[in-house]
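Q: Here's a chain of 381 amino acids. Please give me its 3D structure as tokens.
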Amino acid sequence: MHPMVKPALKRAWRERQTVQFGTMPAHAVMVGPVDTATGALLELFDGTRGLPLLRQEAREIGLPEGQVDALVKRLTSAGLLDDPTAGGPAADALRKRTGAFDRLRPDLASLSVVDPEPGGGIRRLAARRAMRVQVRGAGRVGATVAAVLSASGVGRVEVLDGGCTEPWDVAPGGLPAEAIGERREAAARQLVRRTAPDRPPRPAEYTTAPGCGEPGLSLVVVAPRDGLAAYAPDPADAADWIVGGTPHMYAGVVEATGVVGPLVLPGGTACASCLELDGVERDPGRARLLAQWRSGRRRALPACDVALATAVAGMTAAHALSFLDGELPASTGARWEVSLPLLEWRSETITPHLHCACGARGKSEGGHTPEFGSPHETMAG
């Protein structure tokens, strides 16, 4: 082990014997009391020394035997310690791909803050390479989501859509102006390749989700160009994902409102059918509205404010990455909405419906909305 105090957390002395690591309450930790000699030892926890050398240097500055091991244990339990040599074979392989590794260093720094285990951040980052995500929709939201996921190290990002790129599909972070007139899928594939930090993985590197109809498909992001299909999704479109156990989430812009979620875990959280059954139950006129909305009649170009679409895409990609990294983001069984012009995010829990065939109601007493952040931690002794 080569102990390293996580460099992403800014360090400052609150007073003479208390050190604070991190600025934001969600991840800040205070350590104390810390005497002068222990403070000097902390400076040596930079990832360049193994434990034997650290023990030797601790003796040279007058610290008692066992102080290094005690400090390592203390910092590890507080989630403050990293190890630049840890993470396993996949992490070692990522470190050797220096170009990709340098591109992903800021992402690694962020993951090191989130994951308390030494080497946990790079383990999560390396695992993304073996994942496969499908984005359905290459408009202002979908294409940007695909680009962000690819840039974040997801090994394979597929984009499905029809037709050719129109001038109104163009967005910063999404399809460029040069793609106008090209087939949307082809333009999206080029975008994904340009933003990827590394070459695509070989087929053997993909993960296989249990029960998934397509090997390695970890998540489907439904981001249609007409966001109405994300706000009021047709349950028939998700039937195969429900049967196959494929996680999927919805995102889009409807008129002047952005929606993110729900993230559907088949059999565990509310699905599109639950959403529709609940809506019709609460509003008897909704069934007629849904029929008209989905009628396929010629409609005007859907509204999609570019700044709002970019915000929705960013939040969608962040929630997707959180899920791929093994967490349950706040869109799990819930939908987040934000409307112009005030842009205040609000959430609605989507409860599994008693009469839905997805079976989620039998495994959950209600929707689940995990909380953001964590309490401020302290250490003493």
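Q: Can you summarize the key feature?
A: The domain at 129-252+280-321 is CATH 3.40.50.720 (Rossmann fold).
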